[in-house]
Amino acid sequence: RWCMGLVLLGMVPLLGWGCGGSKILPSATAVTGTVQYQGKPLAGATVTFSAKEGNLASGRIAMGTTDAQGRFRLQSYAGPTESVEGSVPGTYRVTVSKYVPPQGMSDADYQAKVKAEEEAMQKKGIVAPNEKAPQRIELLPAKYSDPQKSQLSATVAKDGKNDFSFDLK
Fold this sequence. Notes:
The protein is an alpha+beta fold. It is built from three helices and twelve strands; from the N terminus they run αβββββββββαβαββ. The chain has helices at residues 2-15, 107-124, 142-145; strands spanning 32-37, 40-41, 46-50, 61-65, 71-73, 75-78, 82-85, 90-97, 99-100, 137-138, 152-156, 163-168. The radius of gyration is 20 Å and the shape is globular.
């Protein structure tokens, strides 16, 4: 028994548990960039770099969110708790996605509807169809937002500046 305990204890660093940062993810390099849509910075969009064989455990999926100036900084993930700044070097398919309220509804109106739905759920435990917030819709064409159809790509270099610019029309 004590021998098995030592083996399991010896595996803790390999699994990335405990102190000292991620032991699961491979080395990553900083990746930044900008996104413009129709000639203007695109705020609040999700930028995803994913390798063909990408999966969370390999660190071959990295994501970031654009700020008001359309700038993003990527973070690679391995499950809900493991992450590292940047991306593993390699070639990636890039997607840019932004969900917005349905046409004719402002962000403030949408948030009010979401809040009302949450309150109804807490109060009654169920929400009537007319109390549900409508689903947000994808703002960007599939050639940018759909992982199967995206025409965007990027190659992250191990050394050097990895600052990408995506000008979406």
